[in-house]
Design goal:
Number of helices: 3
Order of helices and strands: EHEHEHE
Oligomer: single chain
Number of strands: 4
Helix content: 25-40%
Strand content: 5-15%
Shape: globular
Strand order of the largest sheet: 1-2-3-4
Length: 95
């Protein structure tokens, strides 16, 4: 059996700190096969940076989903092509 634990929108530093502090308990209580987090607003409530994505992955997140707010932080663009744990919207065109 595969169990996926999906955590909704992580917003800003408060959301990141709360998530990272709760991850051990969430993993212990629910024993997920995969832990997926939406983090398109992890950087100050708008976008995500490579540093913050790496922090979440190092903290135990298996995959990060993103949305249209992702593209507010240009430094994330090259990272998206190199980090296989990030899922971005396919139907969103970046110019």
């Amino acid at each position: 059996m595969v169990k996926i634990l999906f955590v909704g929108d992580v917003v800003g530093g408060v959301g990141r700190r709360a998530l990272l502090s709760l991850l051990p308990k969430l993993r212990a209580d629910h024993e997920p096969t995969f832990l997926v987090v939406n983090a398109e607003n992890a950087a100050g409530g708008l976008g995500i940076t490579p540093k913050l994505a790496d922090e979440l992955i190092a903290g135990g997140v298996d995959a990060i989903t993103l949305g249209n707010h992702t593209y507010h932080r240009r430094e994330i663009y090259p990272y998206l092509d190199s980090q296989p744990r990030i899922v971005r919207p396919v139907n969103f065109i970046v110019s």
